[in-house]
Amino acid sequence: MGQTATPLSTARSVDPVNTARPMGRILVVEDDPAVQKALKRLFETEGYLVEVQGNGKAALDSIQSTPPAAIILDLRLPKLSGQDLCKEVKAQSPSLPIVVLSATTDVSDKVLLLELGADDYVTKPFSPRELLARVRAALRHTSRTASVSVVTFDGISVDVKKMEVQRDGKVVVLTAQEFKTLQFLVQNADRVISRDELLNEVWGYQNYPSTRTVDNHILKLRQKLERDPASPVHFRTVHGMGYKFVR
Q: Which helix (H) or strand (E) element contains residue 230?
């Protein structure tokens, strides 16, 4: 891929843990052998089992056979692109964490991947500590939401596992990011949430292009789920502070 691989000596700098108790299987989807080796060492040092796949098609076959705990996904892959793989995986397993690893710094690529459902985005050359922290955060988010199955309010049913929303018995189509925004709001009902918190928790990183992104997603949720979007009952604006979901 023409990128300078993260030095293995850097990967060794993370705090060691007892590797006798595997913490789950991480699937690394990356075609650069040097980066594969660095990532494998990094996560094995932290107690994870690591599987490496060098192309998108082989990765998809592996995921469908035995889903991992999380996926680290390079964008530029042979046989099946990272974008297509991300879309396919999230369509089949919405709650499976995906952290994208890419050489591109193009903001439009970040927006596209997050809209497709990726949980986070790290740009090469990457900091091993930062990547490790982001994967852990994605895993924590999954474990927090795993126990929640269905949330209902005002004729609306939100099925977290199926990533499905119904209103008066009819399916409401939401994008991946609209659903993740909705999920975070309903799981934090009656609490005022700032735009920055929504960006950090839903989009997964701090330097998102604009907090207007949050406003646009709240607007879409109101249009799709409120009885009267112009006078929202459930998705309320708290002026100067952020938003609050009320059942």
A: none
Q: 100 pairs with which residues across the strands?
A: 73, 121
CB atoms within 10 A of CB 24: 12
**Is 15's pLDDT higher than 80?**
no
**What pLDDT was estimated at residue 243?**
94
The residue type at 173 = V
Q: Give the model's pLDDT for residue 123.
A: 82
Q: Is 222 left (phi over 0), alpha (psi -120 to 50) or beta?
A: alpha
pLDDT at 111 over 80: no
In the beta sheet, which residues pair with residue 120? 99
Inter-residue long-range contacts of 153-157, CB under 8 Å, 24+ positions, other chains counted: 153/186, 153/234, 153/247, 154/227, 154/233, 154/234, 154/247, 156/225
C-alpha to C-alpha distance for 110 and 102, rounded to whole angstroms: 10
Q: How far apart are CA 71 and CA 55, in angstroms?
A: 13
Q: What is the pLDDT of residues 25-41, one digit of tens each?
A: 899 999 889 999 999 99
Tokens 């995986």 label which residue?
Answer: 89
* 165 burial type by CB count under 10 A (0-12 exposed, 13-18 middle, 19+ buried): buried
CA distance 119 to 117: 6
